[in-house]
Amino acid sequence: MANPDENSSLFLIFILTMLALPLVPYTILRLVRSVTEKKKTIHCRCSECARSGKYRKSIFKRISNFSTCTNLTILLLWVVMVILIYYIKLLSRESQPFEPFSILGLEPGASESEIKKSYRRLSVLYHPDKNPDPEAHKYFVEFIAKAYQALTDPVSRENYEKYGHPDGRQGFQMGIALPQFLLNIDGASGGILLLGIVGICILLPLMIAVIYLSRSSKYTGNYVMHHTLYTYFNCIKPSLAPNKVMEVFIKAQEYMEMPVLRTDEEPLQKLFVAVRSELNLDMKNIRTEQAKFWKQHPPLVKMELLIQAHLTRESLDLPPALLKDYKHMLELAPRLLEELMKMAVLPRNAHGHGWLRPAIGVIELSQSIIQAVPLSARKSVGANSEGSAAFLQLPHFNESTIKKISRKKIRTFQEFREMSASDRAELLTHTVGLSPAESQDVELVLEMIPTVTVEVTCETEGEEGIQEGDVVTMYAWVSVHRANGLTGAHPHAPYFPFQKEENFWLLLADSTANSVWLSQKVSFMDEATAITAASKAIQDTKEALGATVKEINLAVREAIEKVKSGSRLIMGKFQAPGEGTYALTSYCLCDTWIGCDTKSNVKLKVMKRSRAGTRSAYALEEGPVATVAEEGIEEEEEEEEEDLDDYESEYSEDEEEEEKNSKKGKGKAVNGSVNRKGETQSESDGSGTEE
């Protein structure tokens, strides 16, 4: 066995190795990400957003951004590694191999006279008669005298030259990478080694696996609980009105686990009085409605009141306990709304279509939460069919401001945006009464609001026209233009306490049948990723069609230029339905801004099948998805029949007309190709009324 110092050194080397294996690559990965990641600092610069503080980069905020648990842990582990390296280096110095020439300060092969001369010189310094220091005596006996003997005694010199040591051949030594105090326990070394092997090789990996599996079984990749997705899937209905989406949204398991304390009762009562008009209560029977509201599950009551407090901008008076839950609720809201949107457009029928009406409701709720605008503000008032929601997202705007503007025949938000800057400034300063600085804030926000255009084309790759059962490819170029020239930016949202990227949802839908054929989330923040995706999509498509290399390169260059100019390519596939002409609608909905949603018509003509094709292949690919969706709702079909009587009667005539058209439809396919600057979507276009 090795000596104790060597065992301790081996143990430290083992710890250092196990620490460095994950730490070094993880640190390099984080550094590479921090260097290559594009800093998203493009945000609104109005005075309200500046006062919100979420974009402020003070020294304390920078320190707090760095001093996260992960960064501090990495820094601490690197400090431990440096200490281990320094200590191992000290131990290695103490256990240097025996080198007599270097001990005597000579070069290898020195003569005997040089050896004696060096020995006499060192004796003057370290001999006990000359130097009374005990350390000098020890060094003289163990090193200097031994080195002199090894080089002057014939036997010792022969042993050194042959075996590297003056005492001859040395025994083979083995060390154990364990601390010395564990090996000093009499009779217990074997048990400790066994426990160490079992703990490190079996129990530790098993514990990590159990923690990982328990967490992964509870959360999805988007850090949303599986129970939340199950609840959303079962609560989303095709006839769900937009003003009822809130009731589904607050049933998330993350919200249900928030505690309701006794100290919350009084502030919640006050909050109820402040937001009562937004709770859709029957004011004629207010006592019964109020009692019914408070009989709900306490977390449901708390979450709905907190969200309504945010929408009505009554959150400033919340007590500290509720304020903490309020911020946590808003922090979770974006990803919960994204999952709720996915549940709304999830294929639910044999054709693989989702539901349009609840999807629009989710987007409207997301816009209201980000902009802190009440849902009631979307209701049409007089000549303004869009309501006042879009105006309320502007800084320094309120209901009285909107009334003053309406007197000048400015009825819609689009009309207000289309005014010239000088006319708008005169209106805001002279008619509304805003100061020049406040008017400038309005201009800054209007410059941030995007104008969205969509070009949609549907075709069967490599074929002329679209026939029944074909795999139809949708190509959509979504373009964003802003008055300030930016492409991607953070929205104006001074009342939302966290940074939120703006995202768009492109839906290809049949509004009469309340069905979503295709859906895709679109982001304009990462241009490099968009260029890569568009280039690959165009290249694969052209190669499949047998295009030449020159044609492929030209098409790829055109796509890259489009992306750099503020466009994103969206592709999707769906199976062509039965013969007939279908009036589809492409919706481009923003999850942060109110009033910039667009929709455009897409006419799809499907001919009777006359060629062998991809029907069976597509059915094989898409079949399992439809089967899963059908199994998920099979048990609920009977319960939904009574609830959907009105919904079915609303669309029954349209379905009969579609069947007639499918019998009459003949001729060549007309592919929908649209390039319309979207009109602002009103509630009557997408929302409908509550069934």
TrEMBL record:
Residues 681-691 have a biased composition (Polar residues). Keywords: Chaperone, Endoplasmic reticulum, Glycoprotein, Membrane, Protein transport, Transmembrane, Transmembrane helix, Transport. PROSITE patterns: DNAJ_2. This is DnaJ / Sec63 Brl domains-containing protein. Residues 631-659 have a biased composition (Acidic residues). CDD domains: DnaJ. PANTHER family: SEC63 DOMAIN-CONTAINING (PTHR24075), TRANSLOCATION PROTEIN SEC63 HOMOLOG (PTHR24075:SF0). It comes from the Eukaryota. Residues 621-691 are annotated as: Disordered. It comes from Rhynchospora pubera. The chain crosses the membrane at residues 12-32, 66-88, 192-213. It is found in: Endoplasmic reticulum membrane. Pfam families: DnaJ, Sec63. GO terms for biological process: post-translational protein targeting to endoplasmic reticulum membrane; SRP-dependent cotranslational protein targeting to membrane. GO terms for molecular function: protein transmembrane transporter activity; RNA binding. Gene3D superfamilies: 5' to 3' exonuclease, C-terminal subdomain, C2 domain, DnaJ domain, Sec63 N-terminal domain-like domain. Residues 99-164 form the J domain. InterPro entries: C2_domain_sf, DnaJ_domain, Ig_E-set, J_dom_sf, Sec63-dom. GO terms for cellular component: Sec62/Sec63 complex. It is a multi-pass membrane protein.
